[in-house]
Amino acid sequence: MSIQVKGISKQFGETHVLNNINLEVQSGELIALLGPSGSGKTTLLRIIAGMETADSGTIILDGNEAIKKKVGERHVGFVFQHYALFKHMTVFENVAFGLRVRPKDKRLSDAEIRQKVMKLLTLVHLDTFHDRYPSQLSGGQRQRVALARALAVEPTLLLLDEPFGALDAKVRKELRRWMRRLHDDIHITSIFVTHDQEEAMEVSDRVVVMSNGKIEQVGTPGEVYHQPVNSFVYDFLGNYNVFDGWRDEEGNAHLLEYEVKENDVSLVPPVTNKKGWMSRYPEITGLLQKIIPSVVPTPQPLVPQQTKPSPKRTIAGKPVKLFCRPHELFVVKTPDENEYIKATVLHLNPAGPLVKIEMERLSGEGLTAEVPKDVIDRLEIKKGDHIYVRPKNTRLFDE
Amino acid sequence: MKSKSNITEPFLIRVFLIVIAIGFIGVFVALPVAVIFIEALAKGIGAYFNELNNDNAKAAIKLTVLVAAISVPCNMVFGLAASWAITKFEFFGKRLLITLIDLPFSVSPVIAGLIYVLLLGANSVMGKWLDAHNMQVIFAVPGLVIATIFVTFPFVARELIPLMEEQGTEEEEAAIMLGANGWQTFWNVTLPNIKWGLFYGVLLSNARAMGEFGAVSVISGHIEGVTNTLPLHVESLYNGYNFVGAFAVASLLTVLAVFTLILKMIIEYYYPHEIKAAR
Amino acid sequence: MLTIKLKQPSVIPGFSLTLGFTILYLTLIVLIPLSGLFFKTVTLSWHDFTQTITAPRVMAAYKISFGISFIAALVNVFFGFIVAWVLVRYKIPAKKIIDAMVDLPFALPTAVAGIALSALYSDHGWIGEIFARVGIHLAFNPAGIAIALIFVGIPFVVRTVEPVLHDMDLELEDAAASLGANRWQVFTMVILPHVMPALLTGFAMAFARGLGEYGSVIFIAGNVPMVSEIVPLVIITKLEQYDYAGATAIALTMLIASFILLFIINMLQRWSGGRMLR
To answer: Looking at domain C36-277, what is its CATH homologous superfamily?
Structure first.
């Protein structure tokens, strides 16, 4: 089933849960709706399912407006976050339910139902559990029953609401792999909601990154990770470091490094979100404010700080923020002619394929680098050392 | 949330409190029940059964059973409908509805009887209409049924609402998504989940229906053998100084009440989560 | 444009059917009859109305009903709390039986309770006898009324307080104790405030029940006008004398009191987190 979401919006009281959502899903795709809680992803899923109605917009399923069909006729299978298995029915009866409630003329014979159900249970490796009750199953098993139950009615669209949210990490990983394999076999159009970016990246054909009721980016896992369109997507899909920098006329980005004067207590403005030189020179700003109060932003009260340093070089262009991933930081013990940032190693976390280095810059900000273990060994980096880092790639977002 | 703690009151205080608690319940609850049976059997078993076997007693039993047999099913249907509407949907005015359902609990049974006398009695508009059509409601069985319904209709709803509220709507939503219609969903999914709560609510409703006194006293007319339910019969015997008779009939009702409670204990033991939310 | 949603749309069917039936039932059984009461009262002139409800016998009955219900509810708060405490916190033999007995006043017909209490506390009864020897009479006077009202109120306090005690986090008490509080201080400063809403709710419910109670009271009360006559009995007496207007007037005042109490109980339940709805 192909899906078109057109202009869907929904409000709960004052909050805009969904704001003009547009999305196209091809038949047979496995899509992840990824975002933090409150992003609207579950609401969107439920609207596609027909369990909730949007305030405006339409859903088009296979070319037909979904609104025209009753929920039961949409051929949508839904898997709930907490399974919603029927407590008083056995596993078999749960899976058979959708087949048994069909009107008499459309219903299969008991033997046929039995055959179908057992086939599905075998598919999810629970055939020996067919006469158990949900309370006797583990979380992972229950979720598989929920999936089998949804598949029993042969839906053309499968919707899953944080299907692995309530499970342990290890079970989650297994089920993820298993779901991917299942999709490769069955090819039902599937949409699942998750807040776990690793899950979305591992399982889906395409990822829809959402926040605050809008879609930030749609793309393959590779696209959203390596070509994020804004800082939200970048932030959500992994760790990162931020650097102050500036962009010259040719468009090259430069890092801004600070120097520290010993015993220098200078009065500096606290860190604000305002970019631009005005926030760096409060004395001038204060004066201008008296002359043209409406234009100039209010200077923040000055804060005494021990070692907030001043920039080593003057800024000769537009100040920007540069982002890079921890594994994109190049680490050396002695600097060469390139630009480097000096930092002190606070902590080394060796657990994992790469060693995580937690550092603190001269300006007090933190940085994280991920480097292979042999780099650590070769450079003999340990806690308390001064090292020099340089981002190999940086990303810039126009915001 | 609940953790074990060694910090508690000193031993003597505990003993003291336990004695008070058991003493209080013993004096106020156990003794009256004991008195009923002892007084009933004061003149021997023969007299006891005599009092239960006479015509008036039998008529009272029949009437009580009849009134209960009509009011309890009505209240059960009401309870199911009301709790479905309240727990499976979000709507404006829900709190008001629940307050209305709780109403009979704060209204005196005498007033309950009074309002029907006013509405359907000989002096009212409805009463005159009924008279003209030769239908007797007040001082007759239909009046008893209506008054009993007023006093007992909250019971099933009050048992079911917290239970269904706790169970949520996901199972029903899942059933609908799988293609079931409303009745199939209710019958196959909801009902099995609430059956013990429903059963207890019906039991309680029945015990109250059979035992109601104040409301039916006003509506009944106290006609011996015709409009006397068991509780009214008890009063009548007592006022006639037939104490053995009064207590004998009372013992029947007591057995019913005790039986209701024993059943509740059994259900709570075997199915603690299915009888009331988070007890 | 802000539209007020009367109902959240839902996949689950049956809303109109069930709500419609519920409202119909309530209207027929509760609302129409109650409005009948109001209409009847309207036929009384204001003067007659006040005359009726301020008549000495009626005023005395008000004092007795409200006063003794209050005392009985208070007694129930005290003992009911202890019972709830013992049931929740301590391990005692036959706990389940005691627990079931708490529900008995709720399940037992009021007339049966009435004659049983009367037999028990009259001067010849098991308990009445003991007290009669020292000149205290427990039946056929206001004391008897109090005893009956205590009986019917037992489940209300116990059942309201029990869940609160049950859900209480013992760690709060441990924390207080580790900070140096003795048991009494823990009780007054940690436990009591926590259960106070439930205690107040239970009190209000027992009080409301006591106001309207009839069957269990009239056998043990004595029913002497001005001394031991409760308001429901006054209403019935007026009915028997065909003074419908008078009965209605008094009933109206009791109904208003009931509504106020219902409102208070609702507020208390909302404050403490509610029992019927989350």
So the answer is: MetI-like (1.10.3720.10)
**Tokens standing for residue A342:** 């000096």
With a cut of 80, say whether residue B47 has pLDDT above it: yes
- Residue window 8-37, chain C: list those with CB within 8 Å of chain A: 9-11
| Count of other CB atoms within 10 angstroms of residue C6 | 8
Query: What pTM, to 2 d.p., does this model score?
Result: 0.79
pLDDT at A189: 92
Cβ atoms of A142 and A134 within 8 Å: the answer is: yes
Which DSSP symbol is given to C4? Answer: P
B102 vs A: CB within 8 A: no
Å from C162 to nearest chain A CA? 28
Task: Give residue B229's identity as a one-letter amino acid code.
Answer: T
- Chain C neighbors of B89, CB-CB under 8 A: 7-8, 10, 12, 15, 19
CATH 1.10.3720.10 fits B44-274, yes or no: yes
* B177 contacts on A by Cβ (under 8 Å): 49, 51, 71-72, 76-78, 150
In this predicted structure, what is the pLDDT of residue B219?
A: 86
| C47 burial type by CB count under 10 A (0-12 exposed, 13-18 middle, 19+ buried) | exposed
Q: What is the ipTM of this complex?
A: 0.85
Domains in chain C: boundaries = 36-277
Q: For residue B193, which residues of chain A lie inside 8 Å, CB to CB?
A: 87-88
Query: Which is nearest to B89 in space by CA: C242, A91, C15, A211?
Result: C15
Measured distance CA(A241)–CA(A259) in Å, rounded: 20
* CB–CB contact B165 C89 (8 Å): no
Q: Mutating which of A51, A70, A101 best tests the C interface, going by the most C Cβ atoms within 10 A?
A: A51
Give DSSP secondary structure letters for B118-180: HHHSTTSHHHHHHHHTT---TTSHHHHHHHHHHHHTHHHHHHHHHHHHHH-SHHHHHHHHTT-
CA angle in degrees (0–180, nearest 5) for A167-A168-A172: 70
Residues B15-33: tens digit of each pLDDT: 899 999 999 999 999 999 9
Name every residue whose Cβ is closer than 8 Å to that of residue A146 and which is 6 or more positions away in sequence. Answer: A79, A80, A83, A84, A85, A163
- Residues of B whose CB is below 8 A from A77: 177
**Rg of chain A, C-alpha, whole Å:** 28
One-letter amino acid at C113 equals: A
What is the per-residue pLDDT for A309?
56
Q: How far is CA B129 from CA B121, B122, B125, B190, in A?
A: 10, 9, 6, 43
d(CA B108, CA C228): 18
Digit-coded pLDDT (tens) for B117-141: 888 877 777 777 777 787 777 888 8
CB contact (8 A) between residue C9 and residue A53 = yes
For chain A, 399 residues long, the average pLDDT of each consecutive 10-residue run is 87 86 91 90 90 87 73 80 90 92 85 92 90 91 92 90 86 86 88 90 92 91 86 83 75 65 42 46 56 52 52 67 83 78 86 85 82 86 85 72
Per-residue confidence (pLDDT) for residue A263, from 0 to 100: 41
Across chain C, the runs of DSSP E, i.e. the strands, are none
Q: How many contacts, defined by CB atoms under 8 Å, are there between B and C?
A: 326
Residues of chain A with Cβ-Cβ distance to C10 below 8 Å are: 51
Torsion of CA A37, A42, A47, A50, to 10 degrees: -150
CB proximity list for B167: less than 8 A, separation 6 or greater: B87, B193, B194
- From chain B, the residues in CB contact with C163 under 8 A are 278-279
Any C CB within 8 A of B223 CB: no
Contact criterion met (CB < 8 Å) for C11 and A71: yes
Beta carbons of A50 and C11 less than 8 Å apart = yes
Residue C126: its pLDDT value, please? 87
How confident is the model at residue C12, as a pLDDT? 87
